[in-house]
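Below: protein 1.
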Amino acid sequence: MVKDPWEIDNIRKASHLAGLGMQTSYDVVMNGGTEIDSNVAAEARMMTEWSKLFPGDDVTGYGDEEDGVISALWCWTRAGKHIAMSLPASTHEPIADDAPCLTIIWATINGYGAEFERTFSRKPLTGEAAKAWEAMMAAREEVLPLLKPGAVCEDLVAAANETMRRHGFETGPGFLGHGLGLGHHERPQMVPGTKTVLAPGMALAFEPAIFKPDYGVTQSDMVLINETGHEVLTDWTGFIPKL
């Protein structure tokens, strides 16, 4: 669970590529693009920037005994009802201006992954989706400062759940995040009952979320636990919609 300096360096590089992909996805969607338009553009941007910035590093993913993964720089974009629990495949359907749009970026450098997720919309969110956004962001803002050495995973989950309940929402099973490394979902798992204590060198996807049948809102950032607290590797406040 605790990464060494070389591993952390790879995760930093992957996080940087993920940010470039996210910026591209945002621009495409905000200019009228579809979910698939976003995916294609974001993956192309990450591939191009990798070739310029980190040509000596590998973005090949792990496959099976018959095949490999040429590029593990991935983008999945879903909007409106497509953000529901099952997260279906992206489509070329038009995205409504007032629909929440979720972009999920996974990037890998030398086998080490980073995750970056943002929910945004062309026009301000309204109704229940807007209230869910406020609840999710409140949980994010209150719990993020608690990510530091000595924090217990189940306590962080409980704190996020309590904040969302105050705003009238539940987080379902209470999933708050997970470790990343050679796999995209590693220990520690920030779920109820997990008593793992955070320590310097842990790389986490911190992702408070609310998913409903008709919409979903979440923000996932790569967070590195350090000696004094944490460092956010992927944060870009430009993706926060105006409510």
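Below: protein 2.
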Amino acid sequence: MMQLGYESVYIQERMGHGLVPDSFMAYKKQRFRWAYGAVQILKAHWRALVPFRETGLTAGQKYHFVSGWLPWFADGFYLMFCLTSLFWTAGMVLAPRYFDTPLAFFILPTVGVFIAKIVHHIFLYTTRVKCGWKQRLLSAVAGMGLTYAIAWAMWQGIFTKHTPFMRTPKMAEKVGLKDAVKMTLEETSLMLLHWLAALAVLIPGHNYYDPEIRLWSVVLVVQSMPFLAALVASIISTLPSRPAPEEKAPSGPTPEPAE
């Protein structure tokens, strides 16, 4: 529509009330669908986003389309770096002659992405949502908890063209604590693997006093934070919901009933 010259306008007036997903699994499926769809849009219309080329879109429109998807692609690369880190750590423990401590250029991307996401999230919620610090921190946990789901959607979207449509259930019954762990089985497994890897590199006594080894152990723990956030968000989703605040009736005289 924009290529044909139409414009989109954002209206602050709310036209309807939405329902959030009832469980963390539903939350993940919803965001997976969004991220997977974004990759399909990009694959189908990437020619329209080429810069310095007349495609019917303005430079600003191209920028906003691409910049809106970049954080999701960052999650995809984050997962790739995390898996590579686990593989490399296994090499450091099992074959130390061939695997040395990773260089700084390998350490910085994952830690940098993690810090950038936190700063970016807090900044956006401070300037746009106008909520308290507790809500900002909880929203950051919920956002980080989606890292694995979004990353998997991005990689699957790159290499596939179709996936079954996953409807997000609404007004479903609450699940138990055991289900909270089941809903984050992949994330919890990655979290535990990172923690075990962080301990494994420190088990030999002489490694503990090596500053590079200790730094790598800290990096592994930091990399596990999004997966821990997924487990925390899933557990929170199983807690009893607080009743929604009642909306105040509009002030003024009560209208007469129609005849």
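Residues 143 and 229 are 8 Å apart (CA to CA).
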